[in-house]
Amino acid sequence: KWEFPRERLTMLKQIGESNYCKTWLAAITGKEKKHLKYVAVKVLKDNGTDDDAQRFLDDLKVMMKFKFHENIIQLIGCCTTSYPTSSIVEYVDGGPRTLLHVLQKQSQNPANMWLTTKVILSFLLQIASAMQYACSLQCIHRCLCCQKIFVTSDLICKLGDFDLCEHFQSRNSEKSVNTPIRWLPPESLFVLERSMKSNVWSYGVLMWECFTLGGRPYSDLNDREVVEFVQRGGRLNKPSLCSSDIFETMQDCWVYYPTKRPNFEMLKSKMNKF
């Protein structure tokens, strides 16, 4: 079902790179070699280890669980029967523009303030909808932050990097070198205990990013100090751009006990009512 004929892919340029794969902009071509559709192709690196290859395949299995959702980058196909192992995903129109980029660009141009509270809440509603769907499939995003959200030219948010997603029952309890310390709840800071409620904490930090127009969480602290601060009960301050009601929702996401945090269905409802 998912295997895609490699000969129909024309690689155009590299647009990204991670520890174990490179991402290319490519075009799917037809019989007459006409470009039909642009896609992003993630290719396992030549020097990847057996563990990297297994992780790549495990990530593919997670992505295959997702059916169409407007706010999630879609898997189109994969090439696993020939070398190099590759996955083919939706390419966001207008280029790989992240929500973080959109926010920071607005921050640099305050005279032309188009990112109103209404627009930001629309973004947050879409992200909550995507996460509600992911949670319904027992999937957890390992790095939920504005850098992992892509924004189309018509302001549709799409949750990306689901190669950074894992099935709840197979989550890893070890930290990686790319652990997103500033988005993690207390229960994940020493032993990397992942749950849907840890994603809720991260969503609260993502809300804070949005209302600070791309601010860096705990910007005056290093990673070690962030861990100590959060464990002592420290939390991010209220952004000047958000109301008290919205900040209260952020604080709900940062409750120490995971079971007392809201779920994404509740957060989606709140974003809809603000």
Question: How would you characterize this protein structure?
Answer:
The protein has 274 residues and is an alpha+beta fold. The protein folds into two domains: 6-90, Phosphorylase Kinase, domain 1 (2-Layer Sandwich); 99-273, Transferase(Phosphotransferase), domain 1 (Orthogonal Bundle), CATH 1.10.510.10. Helix content is 34%, strand content 18%. It contains eight helices and nine strands. The strands form three sheets. A five-stranded antiparallel sheet has the order 1-2-3-5-4. Strand 2 (21-29) and strand 3 (35-44) form a beta hairpin. Helix 3 (117-136) runs antiparallel to helix 5 (196-211), helix 3 runs antiparallel to helix 8 and helix 5 runs antiparallel to helix 7. The radius of gyration is 19 Å and the shape is globular. The N and C termini lie far apart (42 Å). The model is unreliable at 168-177 (pLDDT under 50).
Q: What do we call the CATH topology of the largest domain?
A: Transferase(Phosphotransferase), domain 1
The number of domains is 2
Shape: globular
Helix vs. strand class: alpha+beta
What's the CATH superfamily of the largest domain, by name? Transferase(Phosphotransferase) domain 1
Q: What is the correct CATH architecture of the largest domain? A: Orthogonal Bundle
What string gives the helices and strands in order? EEEHEEHHEEEEHHHHH
How can the largest sheet be summarized? 5 strands, antiparallel
Binding site for Mg(2+): 161
Domain Protein kinase: 9-274
Keywords: ATP-binding, Magnesium, Membrane, Metal-binding, Nucleotide-binding, Receptor, Signal, Transmembrane, Transmembrane helix
InterPro entries: Kinase-like_dom_sf, Prot_kinase_dom, RTK, Ser-Thr/Tyr_kinase_cat_dom
